[in-house]
């Protein structure tokens, strides 16, 4: 048996259905059955599944087999990831994923300065996507690192490592004529009847807004989502709604008619650099992480 066949066993154990497991493995049902029979013969004609039942269930032997199979496949994946650090071509391109608003936090000069340190054969490619899409690209190894927004308590996959570069405070954003425009702070429970315009659910800011509601116990009744921050600010400026954004982000748009009001139950946004664990030893990625972590001090001094 090989690693792929172990994965077939794990798929059937997970889905408990031959048709669904075969589709997940990109096999025909008959081909999946043949592979499983081959494995059972190889281990001494021991049945791993009770095929007479629906859903298909593991036998006692199958349950033990799956424990080992899962451990072996996980170690195999870890091995492949570990070996990637040695597969760095002389002519390297560092693929940096960024969220659309990252430039407003002062990170484009960081990338520019890093590029100036590179040798002539190295280069940087920038990919602009929302936070959640960047995490997916990282997992698929389609980018080398990501600069994105996360919440302080956000649980990333164990295959990822994050480095916190900047902390921002989430605030209520209102226009200057709003009844809370001159408040020092506000409880979101006071805003339950308001119309909220917030970034859409592919962004890290969306999760931060949910965290703010959970922290205060508030249940917002009217929420509309938008991808473009400018659209949100236009709507707030016209008095059509209020929003939840970081004060630092609002400041960069220089909308004089808008106000940022602190939340009674504060929620922080973290601008983080996220990489695959296996990338820690990749030359360019490692260099950029060190460069960015040293750059952080300069950014933190730029308070508004």
From TrEMBL:
Family classification: Belongs to the LysR transcriptional regulatory family.
CC per GO annotation: cytosol
Stretches assigned to the HTH lysR-type domain: 1-59
Gene3D superfamilies (alphabetical): 3.40.190.290, Winged helix-like DNA-binding domain superfamily/Winged helix DNA-binding domain (1.10.10.10)
Keyword Transcription applies: yes
Name used for this protein in its record: LysR family transcriptional regulator
Chain segments annotated as coiled-coil in the UniProt record: none
Gene Ontology terms, MF aspect: DNA binding; DNA-binding transcription factor activity
Record key words, sorted: DNA-binding, Transcription, Transcription regulation
Phylogenetic lineage: Bacteria, Bacillati, Bacillota, Clostridia, Peptostreptococcales
């Amino acid at each position: 048996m090989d690693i792929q066949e172990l994965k077939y066993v794990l798929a059937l154990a997970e889905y408990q259905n031959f048709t669904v497991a075969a589709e997940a493995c990109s096999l025909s049902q008959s081909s999946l059955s043949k592979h499983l029979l081959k494995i059972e013969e190889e281990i001494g004609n021991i049945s791993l599944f009770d095929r007479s039942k629906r859903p298909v269930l593991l036998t006692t032997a199958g349950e033990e087999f799956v424990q080992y199979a899962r451990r072996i496949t996980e170690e195999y994946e870890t091995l492949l990831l570990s070996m990637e650090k040695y597969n760095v071509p002389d002519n390297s391109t560092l693929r940096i994923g960024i969220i659309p608003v990252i430039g407003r936090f002062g990170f484009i000069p960081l990338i520019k300065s890093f590029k100036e340190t590179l040798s002539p054969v190295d280069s940087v490619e920038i990919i602009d996507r929302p936070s959640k899409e960047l995490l997916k690209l990282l997992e698929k190894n389609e980018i080398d690192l990501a600069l994105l927004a996360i919440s302080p308590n956000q649980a990333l996959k164990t295959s990822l490592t994050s480095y916190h570069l900047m902390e921002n405070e989430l605030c209520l954003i209102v226009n200057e004529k709003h009844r809370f425009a001159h408040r020092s702070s506000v409880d979101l429970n006071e805003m339950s009847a308001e119309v909220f315009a917030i970034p859409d659910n592919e962004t890290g800011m969306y999760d931060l807004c949910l965290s703010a509601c959970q922290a205060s116990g508030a249940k917002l009744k009217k929420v509309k989502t938008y991808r473009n921050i400018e659209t949100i600010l236009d709507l707030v400026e016209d008095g059509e709604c209020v929003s939840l954004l970081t004060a630092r982000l609002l400041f960069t748009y220089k909308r004089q008619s808008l106000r940022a009001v602190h939340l009674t139950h504060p929620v922080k946004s973290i601008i983080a650099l996220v990489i695959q664990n296996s990338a820690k030893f990749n030359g360019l990625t490692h260099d950029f992480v060190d460069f960015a972590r040293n750059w952080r001090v300069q950014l933190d001094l730029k308070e508004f």
